[in-house]
């Protein structure tokens, strides 16, 4: 067996945090290598260094025997590396064939677009993965799985020897996932090295010839398929600290129920039951695609529910629009700050007062001075640091922006606060402040539901954690039963499969 | 994913009070300079009679620009206003002359028709998801056609006294249409800056998904914006018919572009979420000053268009440069 990828002494540090420390790594042709690890374990950094997307601070990468110029993605491509991820999206309105041949020319015509030759060349590429996708359809009409296959085929267009599949199945259902996995296997059988970044352990067991596990930027386990039992993989990912409870408890929950959910169903989730009490922080864990965000959006009325009943503070609660939810006393800090939370060019003041405006106004009228004072108070209590509240929020750091979004709901004094990945894209120091904010909400009696992919976060904050798998509630683990091991095992349980 | 561990330096804060905030200073200054230049070049420019003419022109362009600004603030565009002016102009005349309705009723019905067109635009954009450009392009063509069909191509003569007195009556030498425009500015300013629905309008244009998840009924705000725009256009139609004393189906061709230009010159961002009434008003004033001044100086109409184009180009480029500056601050 020849080594296609050879790496030695890789180091990468951001600020004071070492995110990558890999001394030796060698990947052979003809294998599917699964790369596992929690969020922030260093998987993406490693892959980005191997594909030239990020420059390592130290170390050397050889691809097929030639040294990669550090941090040069074009060179990596030349040496035969291709990545399938959302970074090179498809052009929705163009046909499959056109997408596959984008930026290249098929046929003899120098000026005129040769549709026949393009489709012939595209069919050849699709043949490599044995996918039957209509070539002349716009890709926006294909199913998500088909689009994923087209993306893989597109990456194969340059006949790469090393192929990176970054979470290729997270958006897919079981049947569709199987197809993509089979393609990954076939590609390895053709003599390529396939690096598969995955979250679902059952999939990893199904296709991997070798499982590498990362933790804190290091390779901590190198398992053969026989060794890679679900238990062994979870033990490697969670590490020794798995059984140690994280220091500091959230404030004790108060008495009385705030939210009850019975038989809730929405696209891709349910039916499921939940209860959250006054001042209680309920964690929601689960793998990517398990329905964490969907659940939160359904509770907010931002996604259509198809069944079930909810009550909020004893009243029937059936939000058809987030406006209904806000009026009933619910708030949401969404996952994608830029796309779902911020008015980027608007001042900090507007961003903070946004959800509280109807309460702030008297018969529609806003008193500018009252608004300024009110916002200033909120800004201070959530500790947004800025020169003035009139500056555009886009000029602030990620942590400050996120605290302002918390302030938006602080201002409405919600009964129920929904959080989706509340610390995504904020630095370590800002994380701690956001944890304090979440606790201060709970201390005021707000019921908090926090969906997160970071287990430490849930173990640090939540009184109980509900674990989802494929849209179903697997189990609810109380604080006394917390361990990464337990949470990961539940998230990977098969019992939830329909 | 990396985030910098250091806080960015505090950005520069715009000078000036809340009334004259950074962005509008440019257009206000331009109005002062252009007025001074034309007044020095020709003694008649600043005379009462020319000021009154400009005031009536301003009412027409200004009302359209104001209405279109509502739509642009939500992130949309309204190309139909010129045609709606024509339709409303002949429709009010038709109702008055051919249907024999009292002047006031005819005018009211024309305004209601304008509002109804706005509702259709709004629903098409929000419920059907047809892009604003396409939605209003349909009306641009169809409303003009309706105006021609209604009159069979000939002007409708003989509108009532209320029409003619709107155009001729003056209060303290200020023409009534100009006063109507000033009133509309005050109302628009109150709505946009002093009510929470106004703020929500900006939020929808700034980031529609964020606005929705913050509990704003974005569809209602968008529909409202189109209603305001079409109703303003209908009002301008009545004003033009009053001024000409006939319902003319061919009026206001291309005025939508003047209206959009005035809004953009006044600092309304075509990406949505940005723009203030003060800027829009002065954008319209600048357009009227240039139009009228060039006529008085006997500049050929062809050159007038080149000058207007140049002014628009300057406005757009400054807007881009300012946007880039803000992005750099964000890094």
TrEMBL record, chain A:
The keyword Transport applies. Residues 5-241, 253-495 form the ABC transporter domain. The keyword Kinase does not apply. Keywords: ATP-binding, Cell membrane, Membrane, Nucleotide-binding, Repeat, Sugar transport, Translocase, Transport. CDD domains: ABC_Carb_Monos_I, ABC_Carb_Monos_II. SUPFAM superfamilies: P-loop containing nucleoside triphosphate hydrolases (SSF52540). Pfam families: ABC_tran. SMART domains: AAA. One of its GO terms (molecular function) is ATP binding. InterPro entries: AAA+_ATPase (IPR003593), ABC_carbohydrate_import_ATPase (IPR050107), ABC_transporter-like_ATP-bd (IPR003439), ABC_transporter-like_CS (IPR017871), P-loop_NTPase (IPR027417). This is Sugar ABC transporter ATP-binding protein. The lineage of its organism: Bacteria, Bacillati, Actinomycetota, Actinomycetes, Pseudonocardiales.
Automatic annotation (TrEMBL), chain B:
The chain crosses the membrane at residues 25-46, 58-77, 97-120, 127-151, 171-192, 222-246, 252-270, 277-296, 302-321. One of its GO terms (molecular function) is transmembrane transporter activity. The keyword Cell membrane applies. InterPro entries: ABC_transp_permease. CDD domains: TM_PBP1_transp_AraH_like. The keyword Lipoprotein does not apply. Pfam families: BPD_transp_2. It comes from the Bacteria. One of its GO terms (cellular component) is plasma membrane. It is found in: Cell membrane. Keywords: Cell membrane, Membrane, Transmembrane, Transmembrane helix. This is ABC transporter permease. The lineage of its organism: Bacteria, Bacillati, Actinomycetota, Actinomycetes, Pseudonocardiales.
